[in-house]
Amino acid sequence: MSTHDLTSVKNFQYSESEKIFSEAKDFLPINGTDYVELYVGNAKQAAHYYKTAFGFQDLAYAGLETGIRDKTSYVLQQGKIRLVLTTPFEPESEISKHLTKHGDGVKVIALWVNDAYDAFEQTVSRGAVPYIQPETIEDKDGTIRRSGIHTYGDTVHIFIERKNYHGVFLPGYEKLETEYKPISTGLKYIDHMVGNVELGNMNKWANFYGSVMGFANLVTFDDKDISTDYTALMSKVMSNGNGYIKFPINEPAAGKKKSQIEEYLDFHRGPGCQHIAVATDDIVFTISEMRKRGVEFLYVPGTYYDSVLDRVGIIEEDLNELKKWGIMVDRDEEGYLLQIFTKPVEDRPTLFFEIIQRKGAKSFGKGNFQALFESIEAEQARRGTL
């Protein structure tokens, strides 16, 4: 366990038998995901990739031209999703060290709150380790209040309070407009974000979200739910009170070979955000567009579709169209969902994206786990990491 992980749980004792809240306690109201910041090796090129392949649009920029001397950040937006792509200039900076250790990936999961100062006090008083002390930043467009805490690995949450700000993004950023404006692929909002942690730490971080942030355990998957002949994992899905923020926490389980979680932990050099699930209202359009633009997705065996309707029942979509694009289907008591997973979006087999369309379903595709894991294992075998 890293020093960061040890310090991130000060003043709070975790145990395997300790129960998290049976329902979310909204002492920390969260309005949604404000932005996700990725540290990347070349922000300009990364921005071009996410615009071209995923259909994001320019929103804001901070860098040398705006008076920032140590880094550059591009902010992209699609629907309610904001991505911040940041590259450092100083080789000894925190950002550079993060990149050297982890490669390109998620650093900040920023949460939109009504009161960033109170969010800090509420979480730190319950055991969170501070990342940013409460502060107010301002420019001609108003003020932003923010604060931040550490979570698993080197990942952090920043609380953002926007009610007195009318600028494009944050103070220090300028509106960015370029001539290159690829059309949207139909992505709407972040559905959930998955964290991978070491063996034995899932309950610790589930309890952290329950007791420190007031989340509830929405669903638990064990190695009987998520396993193949070779690998397995366990997962607890934590949700805030209004359901806008959902954080599944995964850990590896015993298997004959190395699981996808162990592969991630090896290449990421510790815990971190494994994937970002983004929602669409028309997954066939979204995936057809993304495939045309070069996004690679996990392969779903054609035999998957031979019996899928026996399991999920009647759906509105044409099954042949779903099979053409490799889109999977699952059903729960509330309805059904359609989902598909990209391959890793960088050279390290770490961060990837899930595209999901919910047709009433509130679950996470348990019925697809077998096919999904077999597909992931095939990719691991190609990489020689299974």
Task: Describe the protein's topology.
Elements: H1 3-7, E1 30-39, H2 43-54, E2 57-62, E3 71-78, E4 81-88, H3 94-102, E5 105-113, H4 116-124, E6 130-139, E7 142-150, E8 156-161, E9 174-175, E10 187-196, H5 202-211, E11 216-221, E12 232-239, E13 246-253, H6 260-268, E14 272-280, H7 283-292, H8 304-312, H9 319-325, E15 328-332, E16 335-341, E17 352-359, H10 369-383
Parallel strand pairs: 1-4, 5-8, 10-13, 14-17
Antiparallel strand pairs: 1-5, 2-3, 2-9, 3-4, 6-7, 7-8, 10-14, 11-12, 12-13, 15-16, 16-17
Please give the number of β-strands. 17
Distance N to C terminus: 23 Å
The backbone outline, from C-alpha atoms, is globular
Taking the sheet with the most strands, its summary is: 9 strands, mixed
Helices, by number, come to 10
The secondary-structure element order is: HEHEEEHEHEEEEEHEEEHEHHHEEEH
* Arrangement of strands in the largest sheet: 6-7-8-5-1-4-3-2-9
Percent in helix: 10-25%
CA-based gyration radius: 20 Å
Strand content: 25-35%
Mean pLDDT: 89
Low-confidence stretches: 1-22
Oligomer: single chain
Structural class: alpha+beta
